[in-house]
Amino acid sequence: MLPPPFCPFGAARVLALKATVALLLTLLIKARIRITAFSALGTALLLLQTLAFLAISAGLVVVAGRRRPAA
Fold first, then answer.
1. Residues 6+ apart with CB under 8 A from 4
2. CA angle, corner 36, sides to 49 and 55, nearest 5?
3. Phi/psi at 70 (nearest 5 deg)?
4. Per the confidence metrics, is the pTM higher than 0.70?
5. Can you list the alpha helix ranges (DSSP code H) found in 1-71?
6. How far apart are CA 54 and CA 48, in angstroms?
7. Domain-by-domain residue ranges, the chain?
């Protein structure tokens, strides 16, 4: 439905609505990109934390094995 050409307030309302929809779509796309990026970052940090835990655990096992006195 097109507004009449000599109705400036109606045309202004339609343009404002279109601008609002464009802004909301832009914000939605931006939010989805941020969620994906931070999800990937969280996964990478979780992997790093797990590897650090395993390395420290292995190091403690090695150190504990070396300090046993020979019987």
1. 10
2. 10
3. -75, 130
4. no
5. 8-66
6. 10
7. 9-65
